[in-house]
Structure formats: C-alpha cells, structure tokens
Amino acid sequence: MAAVLGLIAGSYEQIAFGYRVKTDEKEWTAKAEFTHHAHTASISAAAASERFVVTGSKDETIQLYDMKKRVEHGALLHHDGTITCLEFYGTSHLLSGGEDGLICVWSTKKWECLKSIKAHQGHVTSLSVHPSGKLALSVGTDKTLRTWNLINGRSAFIKNIKQNAHIVRWSPDGDKYVAVVNDKVNIYDLETASVIGTVTNTKRISSVKFINNSVLAIAGGDEFVRLCDLSKEEWVCEFKAHETRVKAIDSFMMEDYCVLVTASNDGFIKMWKLHLQEELESPTLLGEVNTTARLTCLAVWRPSSVQQTAEEPAAEATTSKELIQELSKTKRVRIAAEEVILEDESKPKKKKKGKGK
C-alpha cells in the first residue's frame, strides 16, 4: 500500500509549492498539487501537521492551507516582523516565533492565539517543542537559550550561551538537545543542561534533522548533507545532494528505511532512501522534482505518521518527569506534573446560572 505523502516548499520568489508524491513505484514521482503566491515577501518557514500546512514570511504573516479540503484557510496576524520558525505539536497546537521576540501558541481548532510570550530581547531564531508537549526550547539574538513551561507559558530556565544560536532541536527521545551556532553543533544533556559535545561542520549550518535519537543530519553552505553520530561525535556518512547549497532537510521513517528529503537553491526537492544500519552507507535517490525556484524551507506532510506521534506521548513520560524534577530542583520552578498538553485556554469557563448557589 502506498504511503500518503506531500512535499511543501517555500521560496525567495514568495511562492509556496505543494506536491503529492507517488510512493508505490521504484522511482517516486512528485506531481504538482498547488503553487500558491500567498505572501508578498520571501517565505522563511514552513511546517505541517496531519491536516494543515503553514508558511511564514518576511511579510509578517502566517498562511494556512487545509490539506484535506485542499483550500486556503486564511492567515494568522500577530507577529510584527519576519516569521522565523514554525512548529506543530501533534494536531492540536502550532508554535510560531518571530523577529519581534515573541513565541505564539495557536490552537488549531479555531486558530486563536492562546498565548503570546515575550521570549527574547532580540529576534527568536528557532524553537523546538519537547516530545511530551510540556516544554519548549528557544534561542534568540540576545545570546540566550531558554526553556519554556508550555503549561503556564512562563520561562523555566535561562542559559546564557555567549553567542547567537540560530537552530535548536530536541532529540526524538527528549533526553538531549542541540543548539547550532554558525558551523558548530553543541550537544546538551537534558539533566545537567550543559554541553556534552561539539561537532564542527565545514560550512555555516542551514538545517539539521534528527534521523533517530543519536544520528543527526546536517546541511550547510555547500551541496553536501552529512550525518553525524552524536553519541560518538563522529561523522558517519556524507553525500552530495544538490548542485548548489542545501537550504533545508526533513526526514521520516518508512517500514524498514528512512527517507531524507532535501531542498536547495538549485530549485530541486530530492527524496533519498537511507538504510539505518551499523555502518551507514550513502543514501540512494528515490525521486526528485524541479520547482525552478530558489527554495528556502521545506516541510513533509504525512498524515499517518503525524497521527501516530500525537497519540503516543506515553513513551516520553519518564523523560518528561525527569525534566520536571530537574527544573524544579535547579530553579525552584513548580511545573504541573499532570498529563496536560498545552492547556487549551480558548474554552470559556462555565458561568453559574442564577443569583446564588
């Protein structure tokens, strides 16, 4: 049975491209589903959930697309400045960060802004939601890395990193995270919140993606994608993906292999088959499509896999509790331990009827 798969890419030319991928043949083919001139400036970020795809732009707007109905779904207007990062948590919430220093938490039911957090003194450059949904990390141009309690929208921990990090990502198990500064990937341990390793790329890094809990795919200012084993701090694979620099990478798992998706300034989106084994070999090309535009960002729309992720938070519960205990100890921050995932404040509280009890 063929997997349902969509590719969404943003470009300098202000256009969002959507493709439906046919995966039931040896060579995957991508058929154009939409080309949408939704923005009035270059597109800077993209993200996908089970139903929706969002793009953010230098025009200060977030545009919504309903992938089930295949229609535009409106725009989110709250940020003042470029939208720098977008990330869904499951199917219920979207987080956005911008040059205005704000992180906004949106409900996907009514597309209301549930929380607007003044996260950084400068720009928010990147954010990442913990697998439990209780915490998020953000980095900004104020040279800080901040941990956010998403249950109450408050800062739980602030770390001065003395440099401007431009990417931050939790590992899939939530036991560590990485912060990228120029050409360096700093690996942080969850419990100590300290750097346990550093990996240096040959060029400034533009995109990273965890393939599994230890292998990180890294793209930078050249045509190569490199895979690094963070536990050993070793490069384990390198391959030429495009003719010019790779701007964005994403990945997902099929039955017995990983699919890496890359987007480049050369206009191509490429899908690569990677077998995760002890000795990693260079991936083979599954399929490609030429958008003829200068691509800036990428998102993979895959409804079945996103649904599974959203329905399986229990596997990360122990990690989440450890983090709660650790943060409570270090900063005396009380974080609710009940299973609340980004508490929905959009539901009005019931008013009592009558004049008295």
From TrEMBL:
WD repeats lie at residues 76-116, 117-158, 260-282. InterPro entries: PAK1-Kinase_Regulator (IPR051959), WD40/YVTN_repeat-like_dom_sf (IPR015943), WD40_repeat_CS (IPR019775), WD40_repeat_dom_sf (IPR036322), WD40_rpt (IPR001680). Its main location: nucleus. One of its GO terms (biological process) is ribosome biogenesis. It is found in: Nucleus, Nucleolus. Keywords: Nucleus, Repeat, Ribosome biogenesis, Signal transduction inhibitor, WD repeat. It holds the Pfam family WD40. It comes from the Eukaryota. One of its GO terms (cellular component) is nucleolus. The keyword Metal-binding does not apply. The keyword tRNA-binding does not apply. Negatively regulates the PAK1 kinase. PAK1 is a member of the PAK kinase family, which has been shown to play a positive role in the regulation of signaling pathways involving MAPK8 and RELA. PAK1 exists as an inactive homodimer, which is activated by binding of small GTPases such as CDC42 to an N-terminal regulatory domain. PAK1IP1 also binds to the N-terminus of PAK1, and inhibits the specific activation of PAK1 by CDC42. May be involved in ribosomal large subunit assembly. This is P21-activated protein kinase-interacting protein 1-like.
